[in-house]
Amino acid sequence: MIARRDNREKEAVGFDNLAVRVRELLEQMQKDLLQRALDFRAANTKQIDTYDELSKTMKEDPGFVWAHWCGSPDCEAKVSDELKTTIRLVPFAEGEDISTDDAPPPEDGVCVCCNQKSTQRVLWAKSY
Questions:
Q1: Can you give the residue ranges of every domain in the chain?
Q2: Is residue 119 a contact partner of residue 111, using CB atoms and an 8 Å limit?
Q3: In the predicted structure, residue 96 carries a pLDDT above the cut 80
Q4: pLDDT band at 107 (very low <50, low <70, confident <90, very high)
Q5: pLDDT tens for residues 28-65?
Q6: How many CB atoms are located within 10 Å of the residue 69 CB?
Q7: How does strand 45-47 pair with strand 64-68?
């Protein structure tokens, strides 16, 4: 008998087929765990537009938040001091070697902190 640790499914496997079946199960477990993590991230990521929304979200339902930021260290410090929330990711510009698949595309907006012009959203989150 073999059992998966991620979902507790058990299966009888003959000794002659054990190595092949274990390899298949390990590959499937890796795919399943990745998909579960991606689904969790998607379910806990929001897109907001105002400081009040950011504050409410971080107090009531913290997770990941895509919100506009003007690029000012003062705005980042204010949000960090008041909401205990920091920037976790600033997406690379389109065409750079590394990209973030789930990042919103660049768009004009206003900073959640100071209402100055912003050209992209950044990912904010709390540390626990």
A1: 2-42, 45-126
A2: no
A3: no
A4: confident
A5: 999 999 999 999 999 999 999 999 999 999 999 889 99
A6: 24
A7: parallel
Q: In b/e form, how buried is each residue of 17-26, taking b as 16+ CB within 10 angstroms?
A: eeeeeeeebe
Token match 């510009």: residue?
A: 93
Whole-angstrom distance, CA of residue 40 vs CA of residue 59: 19
pTM score, two decimals? 0.76
> What secondary structure does DSSP assign to the chain, as a single string?
-EE-TTT--EE---GGGHHHHHHHHHHHHHHHHHHHHHHHHHHTEEE--SHHHHHHHHHHS-SEEEEE--S-HHHHHHHHHHH-EEEEE-PPPTTSSS--TTSPPP--EE-TTT--EESSEEEEEE--
| CA distance readout (Å), 9 to 3, 13, 26, 95 | 5, 13, 13, 43
Token code pair at residue 110: 């206003």
Asked if 85 and 57 touch (Cβ cutoff 8 Å), the reply is no
Topology given in CATH for the domain delimited by 45-126: Translation Initiation Factor IF3 (3.30.110)
